[in-house]
Amino acid sequence: MTKVERVLEALEQAKADDIVVLDVRSLTDITDTMIVASGTSTRHVTSIGRKVDDALREAGYKPQGVEGLGDGEWVLVDCADVITHVMHPKTRAFYALEKLWSEEFGAREDGRRERAPRR
């Protein structure tokens, strides 16, 4: 099972909402894949973040960092080539990461979207 598949499995088991996978390899050197998901409350966001971290560690991957577990608005799990953002719906709507990366920068959602032309 790949790292992305492991994260997606953990998100689904934790009942995360609105899971989006963005292929950002052609846009940045910091990561290959960004995964964005939502929880229904701050407690749910924190729980999902912990489950993603635990699932990666159980599979032998060591996240470089986990941020945001204290407040539950936005939890980031950085596992180098896969970065997972778990967000409260209001926080996600405000920052609109998947819209930013997929429309303005041209990331491919699930590998289906082509890079946007430069302006």
Give the tags:
4 helices; disordered C terminus; 119 residues; alpha+beta; globular; 6-stranded mixed β-sheet; single chain
In short:
This protein has 119 residues and is α+β, with helices and mostly antiparallel strands. It has 4 helices and 6 strands.
Q: Could you describe the 3D structure shown?
A:
The chain starts with a helix and ends in a 10-residue tail after the last strand. The longest helix is centred in the middle third of the chain and has 17 residues. The protein is α+β, with helices and mostly antiparallel strands and 119 residues long. Helix 1 runs antiparallel to helix 2. Helices cover 36% and strands 25% of the residues. The C terminus is likely disordered. It contains four helices and six strands, in the order αββαβββααβ. A hairpin with a 6-residue loop joins strand 3 and strand 4. The protein has a six-stranded mixed β-sheet, with helices on both faces.
**Strand segment tally:** 6
Number of helical segments? 4
Query: What is the radius of gyration?
Result: 14 Å
The share of residues in extended strands comes to 25-35%
Strand order of the largest sheet: 3-4-5-2-1-6
Shape: globular
Average of pLDDT? 88
Helix share, percent: 25-40%
Main sheet record: 6 strands, mixed
- Which residues sit in consecutive blocks of at least 5 with pLDDT less than 50? 111-119
Distance separating the two termini = 38 Å
Output the structural class. alpha+beta
Pattern of helices and strands:
HEEHEEEHHE
